[in-house]
Amino acid sequence: AGTQRARASGQTSLHIPYGDGEREKLDVYFPTDPSGTFPALVYIHGGYWQCLSKDESGFAAPPLVSQGVAVVAVGYDTAPKGHMDTMVLQVRRSLAFLVERYSRIRGVYLCGHSAGAHLAAMVLSTDWTEYGVVPDIKGAVLVSGVYDLEPILHTYVNDALNMNREVAQRNSPMLCITPAAPAAAACEVLVAVAQHDSPEFRRQSQEYGQALRAAGWSVSLLDLAGVDHFDIIEKLSEESYVLTQV
């Protein structure tokens, strides 16, 4: 319903291809009053890398577009079609495409939930030289994320992903933290976790936040009371919700 409401209000461009893949598409919800330049919140959906899509990702748009922010929902090839390496590459390419295509974007803010927070964290460790463009990433909101893929190897989640240890290691944000470049020092990372997230989610969020901070990144840890793994992100459709405000 939130996505439908977002599409009904304001100017929206749906299914913009950033590549040839079936799911390599973006939905862009433009600010209600897009005068001049505007910041963009890039939302990467969760679903254990195998379900959901960008089509359910518009719920966060209404409170933000009304404040002059563009919201971009990223699609990527979920498993079993998508391999973990592919998904990481797709999300990175979507960012490069976005900033080349829309010159009025000033400042990109990443937001990902669960598996999407993993992908957003992998974007933070991108070597942009091979993309020919360096997106101005000013912030990242990583919500109930997975930052170390190794514990997943022996769970049902890996049935569709089919990762071996090597794939899990090279795609674990915890293992590819880059020292904060001068530009990255200006990037604020918010690592958010729910009170009722599982102990593993809570542990990984804390450890990843600490590791980023140790590498010179600007990090805040936000532990949200009274929410679980799902409503921590669903409530972004609400104007008054603490994460929307932040």
Automatic annotation (TrEMBL):
GO biological process: L-tryptophan catabolic process to kynurenine
Superkingdom assignment: Eukaryota
Domain Alpha/beta hydrolase fold-3: 41-229
Gene3D superfamilies assigned to the protein according to its UniProt record, in alphabetical order: alpha/beta hydrolase
SUPFAM superfamilies: alpha/beta-Hydrolases (SSF53474)
Keyword field: Cytoplasm, Hydrolase, Nucleus, Tryptophan catabolism
InterPro entries hit by this protein: AB_hydrolase_3, AB_hydrolase_fold, GDXG_lipolytic_enzyme, KFase_ver/fungi-typ
GO molecular function: arylformamidase activity
HAMAP family found in the cross-reference section: KFase
PANTHER family: AB HYDROLASE SUPERFAMILY PROTEIN C4A8.06C, KYNURENINE FORMAMIDASE
Name this polypeptide is given: KFA formamidase
